[in-house]
Prior knowledge:
The protein is an alpha+beta fold. It is 32% helix and 38% strand. It contains four helices and six strands; from the N terminus they run ααββαββββα. It has a six-stranded mixed beta sheet with strand order 2-1-6-5-4-3, covered by helices on one side. Strand 3 and strand 4 (84-95) form a beta hairpin.
Amino acid sequence: xDTAQDRTxxxxxxxxxxxxxxxxxGAAYGANFTDDATYVTFVGTLYHxxxxxxxxxxxxxxxxxxxxxxxxxxxxxRFLGPDAAIVTSRGDxxxxxxRPGRLSKxxxxxxxxxxxxxxxxxAFHNTKRKxxxxxxxxxxxxxxxxxxx
Length: 149
């Protein structure tokens, strides 16, 4: 179930998505997702399906995200069975290839091994971190602070 080969394939899928992003290719970006994938952006926009994800991202790559790269540092891969895995990462969007010093987003991917044997992203959720709000919460309620990983 939790094999090195599967981990490598999952990491390769996420890397392929980042490469498609860097090349500004919405169709190639969308191809990393399942036909019925769900995608939640950090502003709360919800996309459904590979085609919609690719189409919307092409518009973003042509305008607001032109010349940007996706930075994604995987922090955890957890298998839920032989064909399902959850990946947690820290990430950000960088303009013109300059990696940000602090990654401001937390991302959750759910990947599924499809009938063709390929791992694809079935769900993605992106949340913008609010470090000041975290510090306030932890100061007033220390028991809310997560364990250090």
